[in-house]
Amino acid sequence: MGEHKTEILRGTLDMLILKALSLNPMHGLGISRRLDQITGGVFQVKPGSLFPALHRLEQEGWIEGEWSGSESNRRARYYRLTAAGRERLGEEQESWSHVVLAITRVLETT
Amino acid sequence: MGEHKTEILRGTLDMLILKALSLNPMHGLGISRRLDQITGGVFQVKPGSLFPALHRLEQEGWIEGEWSGSESNRRARYYRLTAAGRERLGEEQESWSHVVLAITRVLETT
DNA sequence: GATCTCGTATAGACAATCGATAGGAGGGCC
DNA sequence: GGCCCTCCTATCGATTGTCTATACGAGATC
Questions:
Q1: Where are the domains of chain A?
Q2: How far is the CA of A73 from the C1' of D17 (A)?
Q3: What is the largest CA-CA distance in chain B?
Q4: Has residue B5 got a pLDDT over 90?
Q5: Cβ contacts (< 8 Å) between B103 and chain A: which residues?
Q6: Disulfide-capable partner of B80 in A12, B11, B25, B31 (CB 3.0 to 4.6 Å)?
Q7: B26: nt with nearest C1' to CA
């Protein structure tokens, strides 16, 4: 039954959130919509994944949240990247490209 | 404690094993050594990850195991890809490239 | 016959995602 | 005012997959 859509999202969600926030401060659902849009629907981050991740990142000091009003005048928590978060993003991107390169090598061996 | 997480990207181990077996039938530790070698040490699959994965894949019918003697004359279980496994590998590769493309798009947005 | 290596196996801890569910609060409509 | 829809955040429980650590049998070497 279960068609696994994007389980490989595991472990990359943090990086994607940090990247999104590196462009503009956003609130949670804004990030979610942004990722969905950019990836053409490949990543549909559900609230049950998104908010725990945001709390995790804030806990680690990589993002900072602030309550404010959304564009549609709702109460929303806007997050922005901290300096540590920007550094972290760089590390994760580097690690990611290493991993992708390694996997690519495996997949290309004949 | 700053630990560099060498954790394999979740969900990719199955694909890597299938790919390795698509080249040659191998026993468990052989697969592990092969991946380590090809990726230059990026993936060091530990027994605690490898064997559960192999059992999982055999259960699903994607690989088939047979007891035999290893090159060093030990008792070893050689696995080979089934037809279903080959098909599965194709699906996983396609899914993987989709995901990588999507993530790349996110990381490249400015 | 002690010890090393090879190869397989499993138990327990742990982290991250998902599905489901919840609720407050603004906006539009009648 | 009363209703419903959407927006936005939140959390619980289950599931999955990885890790660390430990274990054991058996061939190799001496």
A1: 13-108
A2: 41
A3: 57
A4: no
A5: 12, 16, 39, 96
A6: B25
A7: C7
Half-sphere exposure of B91 (CA within 13 A, CB side): 12
The per-residue pLDDT for B107 is: 96
**Joined tokens for residue A51:** 């908010």
Q: Is A55 left (phi over 0), alpha (psi -120 to 50) or beta?
A: alpha
Residue B4 CA and nucleotide C23 C1' are separated, in Å, by 40
> Taking the model in full, what pTM does it have?
0.91
Specify which residues A64 forms β-bridges with: A80
CATH class name, domain B13-108 = mainly alpha
**Residue numbers in B near A10 (CB within 8 A):** 9-11
User: Is B39 within 8 Å of chain A by CB?
Assistant: yes
Half-sphere exposure (Cβ direction) of A49: Cα atoms closer than 13 Å = 16
How would you write B16-66 as a 3-class SS string?
Answer: HHHHHHHHCCEEHHHHHHHHHHHCCCCCCCCHHHHHHHHHHHHHHCCEEEE
Q: Which residue is nearest to nucleotide C11 (CA to C1')?
A: B48
